Amino acid sequence: MNQGIKEDCRVWGRYIATDGSGWASRNALDRVIKEGPAAGSGSFRDAPLPIRHSCPAEVMYVHRAYVNEMTADEKAVFYLHFAVSGKPAMKAKVLGLSTATYYRRLGVAFSVVTGFAEFN
Fold first, then answer.
1. Model confidence, pTM
2. Per-residue pLDDT tens for 10-23?
3. Closest CA to 37 of 77, 93, 65
4. Alpha-carbon gap, residue 3 to 98, rounded angstroms
5. How many CB atoms lie within 10 A of CB 82?
6. Are 59 and 66 in contact (CB under 8 A)?
7. DSSP state letters, 50-115
8. What is the C-alpha to C-alpha distance for residues 13 and 49, in angstroms, rounded to an integer?
9. Largest CA distance in the chain
10. Whose C-alpha in 82, 87, 111, 113 is 20 to 30 A from the C-alpha of 70?
11. Measured CA distances, 93 to 20, 27, 62, 78 (Å)
12. How many Å from the N-terminal Cα to the C-terminal Cα in the chain?
C-alpha cells in the first residue's frame, strides 16, 4: 500500500468518525450490528447525508472514492478499518467475514482510492 494514500485514508477516517462532520453520531460498530455490512450505504432514514461536506480538501478524493465507487461490502470494510479503532480480526467478525475476506475487500477498496488519487 502506498503510505501517503494510506495516511490520507487515516485522516479521512478521523474526519468521518468525528461528531462535527454531519454524519450520524452513532458508534460505527453499532451501525454495522444493527444495519448489517451495508451500513452507511443505503437510505438514511434517521440520519440524512450532509448537504455540505467539510472534509479536508487534501483527502476529498478518498471521500469521493468511498461515496461514488465502492460497493456496500467494500464501504463497510473500509469504514471500519479507517474510522473505528480495534483489531481487524474483531471487525471482520462483526461483519461476519473471515480475516482473509476482510483484507481482500480492504485491498479492493484501497485500489479504488488509489485510482482516484491518480487523478487528484
1. 0.71
2. 988 888 877 544 45
3. 77
4. 25
5. 24
6. no
7. PSS----GGGHHHHHHHHHT--HHHHHHHHHHHHS-S-HHHHHHHHT--HHHHHHHHHHHHHHHHH
8. 16
9. 36
10. 87
11. 29, 17, 25, 15
12. 17
